[in-house]
Write a structure and sequence with these properties.
This protein is mostly beta strands. Helices cover 0% and strands 56% of the residues.
Length: 605
Amino acid sequence: MKKKIFLLSICIFFLSCDLKNNNIEINTTSQTSHFENNDEESFISVYQGNTFMYPSENNLIDTFTINDTTVDIVFTIVNRGALPLKMTGDKIVDLSSDVFYVTKQPTINTLNKEESIDFIISFYPKEVKSYFATITIQNDSNNETPLIFTIVAKGILPIGPEINLKDNSEMGVNNNSTYSFSKTRIIEPVSIQLTLENTGSDILIFKNNPFIDLSGDCFSLFYEDNLSYLEIGEQLKFNVIFLPKEAKNYSGKLTILTNDLNESTYIINLLGTGTKDEDYYYTGYNNVSMGTDKVYAHACYWKNQKMIELDTSNADSFAKSIIVENNNIYVCGEYNNFPCFWKNGERTDLFLPYKNDFAFYTAETIKYNKENIYIAGSRYDSKTRRACFWKNGELNDLSTDIPGQDRITSAMTIVNDSLYFSGNFFDENEGKNLACYWKDQNFHPLESNINSETYDIAINNEKVYVVGYYSNSQYNHIACFWENGNRFTLYSTEDSYAKSIFIEGDIIYIAGQIRYNHDNFSNPVDLYRPCYWENSTGQFVLHYLDYLSNANANIKKIFVYNDIVYIGGSEWLYGDKYGYIWKYNNILSLSEVDDYLYNDIFINY
């Protein structure tokens, strides 16, 4: 299959003695235009080369071989008037046809005197017949608004055998083109079906046995018939299969040798990428009875659907955040009310300046950067809450502008070696809890006099995004996010919370929950339905998740991989709690036990 550029000579003029009129001409060649001056009326002159064509008749452009040639017809719009010519509409050039396509619109919409601009119409004939295209150009010319003209082209049979290759969608696959398979897991083969056809006027003979040659590791062929030739109009279907062995890029090549007069060697280049199976990690805790009346929360995580306990002692422990680096699994959380982290199941307690009955610590987020382990959290004494983080076990406080204020951290991320922490602080003068974040150890308040709270933080294109809520005048909590300190509301009809953020490319995903009251409750209580927002269309769109009737959702984390949205959290139902993962908006339970919660999601790929 070949692609050609065909220069069509079409000239359209509007001439008038009144210089206030702007006029339009279309010309597709650099040849000298044929002018027919008329001082009394505007008129259209159409040329193919030097041959004059009439707009009122069917103007034959040329004949083209069917299923063989894609023709790019290059047009040029020229303004021959004295004043600027404006071309309007969402589509400046439009046409009505099933084989002609506007493949390049004019890139500017205003032309001054004698200025010009190109556009391209492509033509691909499929049958032996005449094809018509009515072309419309929206403009503000006083003489032709819009400008409409018709072109005609004929499809003809090729002389001799003619190879044609197309895919399942009946689209032609050009010679020396490249077909790329989508990313493919190493255990899941993918296949495309292609069709060889003889669209010529003589027998198409294959010079290979089998009829097609394939090279390249992890590519293979499947076909039922190994023909040596194709009669006129006959087809031969075959499948190309890609089954990667490793997580890497692959390349291959299809070669078909025939007696086609123009394309005796037909080549299709193949590309594919193998990906390994992703491992899904979830952190949380599982409530376990230790054979007495005491029930303990035991820190644990799930790898795919298998639960791995991190602690089995007679003490409460909680797993908060998880990462996988260099095949090592790091989990942070608390053991017996004090912060710690586990590396491959082995617990390390974090440094504490004091440890007594009045002290309490949290470890909320763990990150790994250049062989350093960072854990963000908070510490409490009998007087003050303090935001803090540990770097390789060394404690660092995060301060505010006013010493002694209560403050906590809710999440952490690392970008270009800078540490970002979302958090909150209490302003005693305002008597309000206020949202904030830290970059490294520099404090940035997000609100000054509105009750607010943050839950997560992300960085994209040097912009800082923080999610949480603020309170309105009715004391409702309103889900929102801050972009570089500017607040944006996500949902304001009911109480709502934005709990976690994930950015993939330029798309922002925010998970949270929205209050609803179920009719089955005689005394309505606050119940929350899980949801997420995403802005792939330029505006944030709300998506509700499946949920248990009468249940109360508490969303913890969102993660996006291969355009699949994963959300972790829990639902409380009549006093019982259940940890869930949502995938494709559907609720999934990944544990055989009921009394457990999820806190974090990490996908290793």
